[in-house]
């Protein structure tokens, strides 16, 4: 999506909107309040890949003291990519939770998600990219 927001602002807005949406579905959440330094967000710490779900950071969502929503943001100019993981019970399979998260993200980030159909040529290109890059040891073991 296109935005002028900083990654920190995106993270805070999105997670607040998801927290409110989950509360409307009777999922009780709290924030990770512990501010951390920029090194905590780096993809590598002490020579090993960081395990982002081990320790909550500021604006992560928690339930029963455990991290249930965290994510990563990558910026390319005004374009931002957010990749997150909701780890709350059956949230991924629950249509109400899926709808809540989708609507929260659309509202918080002023975007609209719409289904896209990939034609055979684009789907083949995506599969080739996945096979050649994203499934390669070069990509997956780079940290």
Percent helix, as a range, is: 25-40%
pLDDT under 50 segments (min length 5)?
none
Give the strand content.
15-25%
Order of strands in the sheet with the most strands? 1-4-5-6
Shape designation = globular
Number of strands: 6
What can be said about the biggest beta sheet? 4 strands, antiparallel
Number of helices: 4
Spell the H/E element sequence: HEEEEEEHHH
Mean pLDDT: 80
Structural class: alpha+beta
Distance between the termini: 27 Å
Radius of gyration from the alpha-carbon trace, in angstroms: 17 Å
Task: Pick out its properties.
143 residues; alpha+beta; four-stranded antiparallel sheet; two-stranded antiparallel sheet; 20% strand; globular
Describe the structure concisely.
With 143 residues, this protein is an alpha+beta fold. It has helices at residues 7-24, 95-109, 120-134, 137-140; strands spanning 30-31, 44-45, 48-49, 61-63, 66-76, 79-86. Helix 1 packs antiparallel against helix 2.
Description:
The structure is a single chain. This protein is α+β, with helices and mostly antiparallel strands and about 140 residues long. The chain is about 35% helix and about 20% strand. It contains four helices and six strands; from the N terminus they run H-E-E-E-E-E-E-H-H-H. The strands form two sheets. The protein has a four-stranded antiparallel beta sheet, covered by helices on one side. It has a two-stranded antiparallel sheet with strand order 2-3. Strand 4 and strand 5 form a beta hairpin. Helix 1 packs antiparallel against helix 2.
């Amino acid at each position: 999506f296109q935005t002028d927001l900083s990654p920190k602002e995106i993270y805070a807005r999105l997670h607040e909107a998801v927290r409110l949406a989950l509360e409307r579905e009777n999922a009780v959440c709290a924030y990770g309040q512990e501010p951390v330094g920029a090194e905590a967000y780096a993809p590598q710490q002490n020579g090993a890949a960081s395990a982002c779900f081990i320790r909550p950071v500021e604006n992560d969502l928690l339930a029963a003291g455990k991290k249930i929503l965290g994510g990563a943001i990558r910026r390319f100019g005004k374009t931002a990519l957010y990749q997150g993981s909701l780890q709350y019970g059956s949230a991924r399979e629950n249509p109400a939770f899926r709808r809540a998260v989708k609507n929260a993200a659309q509202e918080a980030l002023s975007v609209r998600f719409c289904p896209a159909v990939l034609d055979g040529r684009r789907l083949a290109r995506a599969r080739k990219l996945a096979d050649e890059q994203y499934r390669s040891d070069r990509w997956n073991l780079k940290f």
